[in-house]
Batch of 3 targets.
Target 1
Amino acid sequence: MIHDRKQVTEMILSAKVSKGIKWVQVAEAINLSKEWTTAGCLGQMTFNKAQAETIGRLFDLSDEAVAWLQVVPSKGSLSTAVPTDPLTYRLYEIVSVYGSTIKELIHEEFGDGIMSAIDFSMDIQRAADPKGDRVNLVMSGKFLGYKSY
């Protein structure tokens, strides 16, 4: 019996390793971006029935696990307030160092509001560089202005 979505994530990760599956292959199978698909497989997004069934076939998941993929998860994947994984920590560090700059520049350009994490997309690509390959991370969120009332 499965008790939570985290168990399904663990099943997916185990099958991914044993089968040698890449996230981009999963994304192609359900016709979505590798970024969104990976977030879903890691327990952060809800799949529809067809998507969940396809993922179930790819990872040999039980019907119960496929049903869990269709349940709205509790979002937020960090286990601690300050992440300890080095890569995740660097993203935290970027926000710690540049967060006020990003906020200031968004407000100057758009006004008082926020960048949506719901109406959002992300693209991660490798960029060749003679000094060492670079990570190209593009985040795009709809601007949501605060309303007056």
Target 2
Amino acid sequence: MSNPEIRELEAFLALAEELHFGRAGERLFLSQSRISQLLRALESRIGGRLVDRTSRRVRLTPLGEQLHAGLRPAFDTIVATIDEVREVARGVGGVFRVGFQGTANDPFMRAVTAFRDGHPDCAAEIVEIPLSDPFGAVHRGEVDAAVVLMPVLDDALVLGPVFSARPLTLAVSDRHPYARRPGIDAEDLAGCPLIGVSGAAPEYWRLAQAPAVTPGGRAIPPGPAVSSLQEG
């Protein structure tokens, strides 16, 4: 005789605890007739009646009570084990280390808090990443993911959704001629040295943060280079 199917066992457990075909069906999102079919199939495999059903009540037979007493804890263990393995497969157990550049601002911390709330079995740790090396910590396995400035043109990395979008801002001294303007054009950067980034950051990424030419092709002289957002 073949072994019971998982759906038959689920139907029996729901019926044994609800003692009502309608409520058991609602619990499993099945119709009453489907619960009856699954119960009959299980009784056929076992070779005995598990439930006595009359027009007024539903109750377990002694055989049904014996099955329920042994099945419930075993079934719960199976479900818990599957859930644990699924969490490991999804990578949401243990410790999740996420890197960030600059300041751990409110949007970043809200995202970390939401992750912790959604995955209480996973400890989320935040790690500051130097501006000069946005991708190194991921490559070296020091963090599992990182929130960094765009662009990311590295075939060894998987780019996730954009975390936040902010307009480019030019910061100048209050003594600089541009400080008195209501706005400037990108072409105005020609002849204005820009503070760049030093260190291990890829050249394409450094040029995106401090371009060497304007969109029109006019040269932008390089200024001093820094390795972290706290410098300069």
Target 3
Amino acid sequence: MRRAVIAFTAFLGGLIFLLAGPAHAGPADCEQGLRGTLKLQGQPVNGAKIAVTTESGQPVKEVTTNAQGAWEAEVDDPGKYKVTLDAASLPQNAEIRGGNNVRTPTVYEGNCSAVLFALQPKGAAGQQQQQDTDAADSSFWTRAAQLTFEGFNLGLIIALAALGLSLIYGTTGLTNFAHGELVTLGAVLAYGFNVGFGIHLIPAAVISVIVAGALGYGQDRFFWGQLRRRGTGVIAMMIISIGVALFMRYVLLIFFGGENEAYAQYTAQPGIEVGPISAAPKNFVAMGIELAVLVVVGFALLRTRTGKAARAVADNPALAASSGINVDRVIRIIWTLGGAIAALAGIMLGLSQNLKYTMGQEILLLIFAGVTLGGLGTAFGALVGSLVVGLFIQVSTLWVPPELKSVGALAVLIIVLLVRPQGILGRRERIG
């Protein structure tokens, strides 16, 4: 009970901190598109013309900077675009640093991408070559820092989902292919309480985590536990989990629908800049909550009686039972915890992108990659492996197209497992 109070207090404290942030986007924020600000030596540039076209050159929109030097252009479809700054519309004493007035950013679904044009006073042509080099280096490292931050953000979300999957595998041996639907379930429950019942997102999230934990307990109490008592093998249970995943996915489709949705609060907050990193306040707070939950669960596994019992069951269920440990009770606690943490991961994923009934399925492969890379059945291995996967997915877009960004993470998975088959923090198992 004490560990549950500690975990709930940490989670609730983080959510209260989230409430302190701005909940609604200002009118100048776009939900999906491009935006930027033009300044010359700290002063906004008004009236500069910017044209947005598709990658093939089809016109999309033409905009003009306002009195604050800001501009934005919403687009209907995600993808790669070409943004051209009309140099003739700049003040007479201004020029584009490097001379390149074209940018080719990528717009991701439900996000607004920033486009940077660096301006400088005319007459600095004598140092143009050095400035070009400096600008290219600065742009590369700025983008690398931004992608590293986004990689940690994605990695922590994957780690939350992978933690529950790893704990369930460690105590039962079940590779649960329905775990992605547990992630989706948490996001959909929060959406239902938030939008359907008009409850603010923070209490809606708390209620959803509790309900998902109860559903996790019910799954093991009335379904998986019954299969274990009947002597069903882990391979058969794995195949059953695929059927459960399909069943849950299409039940969610019936009740939630096939359209993308968003929460009523915290959908498009204005970004804040911390050094070279630009992100919405909700991203910083969400990462803090995710880290707090991971630390609390890790501490509980190491220090509490139930955590030690769970590790004993994972090592040897028969020996744990002979030592007086109630194995079924421990497994149900793990299922409750796994369902609650998966729901929290779904809520955090829903904050960073739009909600859809396949959102859990889309990251399931990454969850398995994080668990396998870190070491099957180890909680801290799931954290380390998931962070590595998240980082490689995002940072790899510095060199590969965004469509291939998952390839880098899976390549690292293969290379690491060739060198260390048990994973980064896994233990060697004797075969034969």
